[in-house]
């Protein structure tokens, strides 16, 4: 530790050992997480768009992607269900959200090629508190953020994949993305392949590692297949949410397709302009002063991610053609999420710029402290639950009553959810839009309309049962007889609906927040399902190799890499 002087911030021990730097970055991430979440940390669940947590979830075929929509929730739902068997569901949600902030800060701080603490903390704060995190949090994509939080670890591991044990280190670094699922793994995998390729070796180790952690969703997704739906290209394309057009917004790490996710006040000229100025400074600092083993690969990955992010907005026809040729290209529709490697570059560039300032003149130490606080000052709307837009609520008693009745019934048959829409705006949830929680809340096969509508564009359903029942529900006629023939035992109505269409069904729960009907004349409908042994095998292979990656080298995720011994040139 350097000699402490008596002026201002020089009282503080800015130079620390590697473990102490990890601890300091983790504490900063925890503080930022507490500040960002605020009312979301109260008892209850935060339900916002795709962020759906429920009390007492249970394992079922849909949990593992064997039934229903595409396996986007695999394996995140299984991990959450397992954790909820040990800890209450709302606590699990809060721990995962806080873990995102802590991991993001620690991983970004560890990637800065400097022994000094201040530059690392500045990078950690920049990576943890920015428009990308704010918009993805507001749209509820916590699983994507989980992979984002560990992306700096993936960058380092990919650069070192050619070394002894490098493949195992990469698997460990990919664990958070693997939990997040397909979108998180695709972002991390694309970054890892480009970084490894820039080193001229180890791609042969990187690709198998990505496949290993992807097996639970990759196997079920390939076996089930996806429809070649090109209608969502325009709906999910990046959009301008700053005065700097679409590409300027993407360069600023914003530009998400949903206008409702823009943090309050961010899109105006002053905060967006100041943030863009910091981004330009960080990119310049990265180009001038960052020369680590991975610097060139990360730069290429950031450029590639930026181009993919703008693909749907700049050349939507090309993306439509690609999806028509191979439906898997649909993963590129929500292109804005691919600016994640650019966020890593910006954070590291911000850190090395601060390092240059502090190293040039110790009087700049106070400026370095302000740099740590700069992201918060530029984007204050992320604080306190995104200015109150994220807060915890409890599920109504009507829901619990319905779940108890359905769980006690041993008769075969499915549950249908009405009205026929994928997203809800419950009064008890403050009117916030949220993906229907009932498929996770109920311990039975739930049929719901998974066709997503964005503006005037509706993407087709991916669930075969939904497609089969869609004409019946849209017909406007009586439902009980037709639903019974389609294997529906219960109907749950959780919003305004013409209940006259359910005349003849038995009303079991009639509360202000939910009504439950039972269909008497039932004809069970067999549903094709992927053989479970295939999913079990995929999970066994993934878990075995992931566990071995931790046990064999006897290291942990936090101490994934040894402390840096070199300083920036």
Helix content: 40-55%
User: What is the 3D form?
Assistant: globular
Largest sheet: 5 strands, mixed
Total of helices: 25
Radius of gyration based on Cα positions: 25 Å
Distance between the termini: 20 Å
Tell me the number of structural domains.
Answer: 2
The largest sheet has its strands arranged as 4-1-7-9-8
Low-confidence parts, pLDDT < 50 over ≥5 residues? 1-14, 561-569
How much strand? 5-15%
Mean pLDDT: 91
Structural class: mainly alpha
Count of beta strands: 9
Structural account:
- By secondary structure, the chain is mainly alpha-helical.
- The chain has two domains: 8-391 and 538-551, no CATH class; 397-518, no CATH class.
- Helices cover 52% and strands 6% of the residues.
- The protein has helices spanning 18-37, 76-84, 89-111, 117-128, 131-138, 142-149, 151-159, 166-173, 175-180, 182-198, 203-224, 232-235, 245-251, 269-289, 295-309, 311-314, 316-325, 340-360, 365-378, 383-388, 397-408, 438-441, 464-474, 480-485, 532-551; strands spanning 414-418, 423-425, 433-435, 446-447, 453-454, 457-458, 488-493, 506-510, 515-518.
- Helix 3 runs parallel beside helix 6, helix 4 packs antiparallel against helix 18 (340-360) and helix 4 (117-128) runs parallel beside helix 19 (365-378).
- The longest helix has 23 residues, at 89-111.
- It is globular.
């Amino acid at each position: 530790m350097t000699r402490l002087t008596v002026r201002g911030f020089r009282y503080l021990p800015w130079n620390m050992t590697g473990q102490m730097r990890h601890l300091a970055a983790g504490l900063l991430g925890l503080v930022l997480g507490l500040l960002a979440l605020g009312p979301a940390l109260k008892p209850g669940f935060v339900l916002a768009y795709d962020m759906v947590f429920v009390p007492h979830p249970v394992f079922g075929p849909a949990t593992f992607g064997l039934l229903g929509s595409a396996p986007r929730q695999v394996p995140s739902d299984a991990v959450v269900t397992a954790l909820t068997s040990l800890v209450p569901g709302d606590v699990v949600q809060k721990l995962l959200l806080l873990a995102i902030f802590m991991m993001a800060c620690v991983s970004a701080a560890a990637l800065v090629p400097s022994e000094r603490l201040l530059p690392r903390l500045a990078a950690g704060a920049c990576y943890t508190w920015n428009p990308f995190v704010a918009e993805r949090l507001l749209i509820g994509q916590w699983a994507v953020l989980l992979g984002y939080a560990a992306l700096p670890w993936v960058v380092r591991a990919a650069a070192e994949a050619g070394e002894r044990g490098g493949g195992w280190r990469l698997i460990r670094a990919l664990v958070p993305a693997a939990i997040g699922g397909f979108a998180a793994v695709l972002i991390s995998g694309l970054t890892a392949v480009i970084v490894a390729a820039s080193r001229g070796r180890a791609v042969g180790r990187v690709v198998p590692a990505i496949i290993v952690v992807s097996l639970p969703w990759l196997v079920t997704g390939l076996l089930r297949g996806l429809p070649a739906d090109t209608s969502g290209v325009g709906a999910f394309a990046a959009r301008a949410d700053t005065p700097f057009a679409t590409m300027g917004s993407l360069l600023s790490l914003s530009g998400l397709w949903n206008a409702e996710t823009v943090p309050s006040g961010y899109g105006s000229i002053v905060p967006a302009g100041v943030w863009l100025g910091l981004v330009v400074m960080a990119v310049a600092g990265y180009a001038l002063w960052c020369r680590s083993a991975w610097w060139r690969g990360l730069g290429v990955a950031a450029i590639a991610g930026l181009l993919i992010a703008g693909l749907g907005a700049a050349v939507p026809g090309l993306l439509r053609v690609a999806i028509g040729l191979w439906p898997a290209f649909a993963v590129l529709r929500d292109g804005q999420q691919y600016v994640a490697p650019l966020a890593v570059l910006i954070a590291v560039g911000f850190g090395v710029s601060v390092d240059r300032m502090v190293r040039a003149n110790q009087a700049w130490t106070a400026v370095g402290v302000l740099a740590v606080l700069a992201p918060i000052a530029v984007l204050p709307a992320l604080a306190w639950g995104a200015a109150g837009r994220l807060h915890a609520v409890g599920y109504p008693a009507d829901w619990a009553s319905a779940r108890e009745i359905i769980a006690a019934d041993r008769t075969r048959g499915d549950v249908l959810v009405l009205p026929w829409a994928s997203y809800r705006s419950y009064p008890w949830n403050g009117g916030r839009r949220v993906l229907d929680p009932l498929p996770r809340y109920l311990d039975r096969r739930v049929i719901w309309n998974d066709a997503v509508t964005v503006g005037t564009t509706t993407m087709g359903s991916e669930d075969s049962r939904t497609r089969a029942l869609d004409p019946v529900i849209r017909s406007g006629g009586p439902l009980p007889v037709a639903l019974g023939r389609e294997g529906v035992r219960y109907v749950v109505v959780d919003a305004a609906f013409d209940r006259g269409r359910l005349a003849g069904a038995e009303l079991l729960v009639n509360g202000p927040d939910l009504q439950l009907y039972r269909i008497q004349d039932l004809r069970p409908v067999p549903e094709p399902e992927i053989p479970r042994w295939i999913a079990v095998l995929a999970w066994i292979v993934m878990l075995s190799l992931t566990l071995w990656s931790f046990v064999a080298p006897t290291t942990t995720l936090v101490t994934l890499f040894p402390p840096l011994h070199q300083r920036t040139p």
